[in-house]
UniProtKB/TrEMBL annotation:
<dbReference type="Pfam" id="PF00232">
    <property type="entry name" value="Glyco_hydro_1"/>
</dbReference>
<dbReference type="InterPro" id="IPR001360">
    <property type="entry name" value="Glyco_hydro_1"/>
</dbReference>
<dbReference type="InterPro" id="IPR018120">
    <property type="entry name" value="Glyco_hydro_1_AS"/>
</dbReference>
<dbReference type="InterPro" id="IPR033132">
    <property type="entry name" value="GH_1_N_CS"/>
</dbReference>
<feature type="active site" description="Nucleophile">
    <location>
        <position position="423"/>
    </location>
</feature>
<keyword id="KW-0325">Glycoprotein</keyword>
<keyword id="KW-0378">Hydrolase</keyword>
<protein>
    <recommendedName>
        <fullName>beta-glucosidase</fullName>
        <ecNumber>3.2.1.21</ecNumber>
    </recommendedName>
</protein>
<keyword id="KW-0326">Glycosidase</keyword>
<dbReference type="InterPro" id="IPR017853">
    <property type="entry name" value="GH"/>
</dbReference>
<dbReference type="GO" id="GO:0008422">
    <property type="term" value="F:beta-glucosidase activity"/>
</dbReference>
<comment type="similarity">
    <text>Belongs to the glycosyl hydrolase 1 family.</text>
</comment>
<dbReference type="GO" id="GO:0005975">
    <property type="term" value="P:carbohydrate metabolic process"/>
</dbReference>
<comment type="subunit">
    <text>Homodimer.</text>
</comment>
Amino acid sequence: MSAIRGKKKNISSWRLFDLNSLLSAFLAFCTLGLAGRVQTTRDDVRRFPDGFLFGTATASYQVEGGWDEDGKSENIWDYLTHTSPCTISDCSNGDIADDSYHLYKRDVEMMRELGLDFYRFSMSWSRLLPTGFPDQINEGGVNYYNNLINEMLKYNIQPMITLYHWDLPQRLQELGGWANPHVVDWFGDYARVAFEQFGDRVKYWMTINEPREVCDEGYGDVNLAPLLDSKGIGEYMCVKNLLVAHARAYHIYNDEYKSKYGGEVGIAFSARWYEPASDSEIDIQAAEDFTAFTWIKYVHPIYSETGDYPPIMKEKVAAKSAEQGFFRSRLPEFTQEEIEYVRGSSDFFGLNHYTTFLVYRNESIYDANPVPSLFDDADIGSYHHPDWEETASSWFKVVPWGFYKLLTSIRENYNNPPIFITENGFSNRGGLQDDDRVRFYRNYLSAMLDAMDEGSDVRAYAAWSLMDNFEWLSGYTERFGLYEVDYDCPERTRTPRKSAFVYKEIVRTRALDLDYEPDTDVMTIDEGH
Ligand code: GBH
C-alpha cells in the first residue's frame, strides 16, 4: 500500500495523447475543475471513492459452451452458427467457447486472483427454460448457476446477473421474438423463475444487455442474430416490446421480491458518444438526433420526467412514415399506461461504453441510406476520425474523452443517476504483452475519474472481459480478455495478460497509478480472497 502513498505522478498523459489528435478545443474542456467527490490532486495517484466496486463481465453464449448439455435447448446463436457457420468470420461457434459450463471453478479462481468485488455474467434463457416457458425448469441449468453463484459467494464475490444477453430461445424467435408483444409475458415469466431460484443470493440484476444492439443490429440489420434486416419496421417493434418487457421484470422484482431480498434491478444501455463532425448548428443537431435514435430512445422512456420516446424521434418517424405512405408511424406508440409502467423502472443506470463517432447531417436525398430505415429517419451519417487509435474491431476506435463527455451528459440530462459501468474494454488480436489494452484501461479510467471529480455518480466498473470469448459475428478473431484463452487446447487454458496484473493492482490499491509496471508474470491469490 505504501508504494502508492505520496508518490508524485503525472496523470495527464492521456490528454497529451488526445492533443495529438485533432481536438485541441477539447483540452480546455477536459481540464475544467477537479474539485469534487474524488479527493485527489492532479499530481497524485488518483483514488477511487470509498465503496467503489470493481468487477469484470462476460455473457452466457460467449463463454459457457455446453450448448446442448443437460437439457439445454437451442438459442438463436446456436441456430445461426449451426445453420450458417460461415456467417461468423472464422466459421466458429459457441458450442464449447471457453467451456465455462465445466470450468466455472477456474473462472472464480481468476476472479479471486484479480481481487474482484463482483462478477457480471448472464443467464442462458434456453438453459434454464428449454421450452422458453416456465412449464419446464431445467434442473441442469439451475444446478449450473447455483454452483457458479455459490462458488463466487464463498469468496465474497457478488454476482451481478444479466437476464438477457442476446441468446433468445430459438422457439421464441420462431414466434417473432422481440417483435411479438407477447414477449412481455415470456420475459416476465423467465425473470420470475430466475428471481425465485437465485434471488436469495443475488442482489444485482440486469434485465437486458444493450437494447440498441438487440433491436438495431439484430432486427434492423444483419450484425447480430437473428439477422432480420427489418429496417425501420421490425427494429422499432422490438424497441417498444423490449422496453415494456424490461419494465415487467422490474415490477415483478419490485413488487414481489424487493422487500424480501433487498436487491436492485437495472438495465445495461450501450452508449457511444456522438460528437458533431463540425461546429455548425446543423451537425450539432445531427449528433443530438442520432443520440436520440440510438440509445436515448431507451433511456428517455425510463429516466426522463415525462417518459416516452424522445420527442424528436417520434416526430421524425411519424413524418417520414406519412410521407412514405404508411397509415401510421412505423414507431409503435406507447399507451399512457405503458408510459407510466416504463418510467422509473430502473434502480441503477447500467452503461456499456466503448467508442465515439463523429456525426453529420445527411439528408436522405443525397445518401445511400435505405428507405425506410433508422438512418434515413434520423438523416445522419457518422464516421471515426482517421487519427484515432484502432482496435481489432472495425466499429471501435479509442477515444477516452468521449467517455468523459458521455458521463457528463448523463449527469446533466438525467439528474445524476447512480451509474454502474457494466462494460468497458479493448480488443486486439491476442498476445500476453497487451500494452495497448493497459493504455486503454488507464486512459478510459482517467476519463471516468474526471467525470466523477465533477460529480458523476459512478459506483461500479466492470472490465469487458474477464477472458477472451466468442465475439459474435467476429468469432474468436477479436480478443477482449484480461486473460487469454487458448482455443487450440481442449482445456481452454486461461493465462493472465499484462492487463490482468495492472487491473489487479488498480483493484488492490483502489487507485490508478499510471506508472505501475507489474514485476511478475505469476498470478497469485492475495490474502482475504
Ligand atoms: C458489447 O457489444 C457486448 O455487450 C458484448 O457482448 C461484446 O462482446 C462487447 O461489447 C464487445 O463487442 O461490426 O458493424 O457488424 C458492443 C456492441 C455489438 C458493437 C456488435 C459492434 C457489430 C457491429 N457491439 N457490433 S459490425
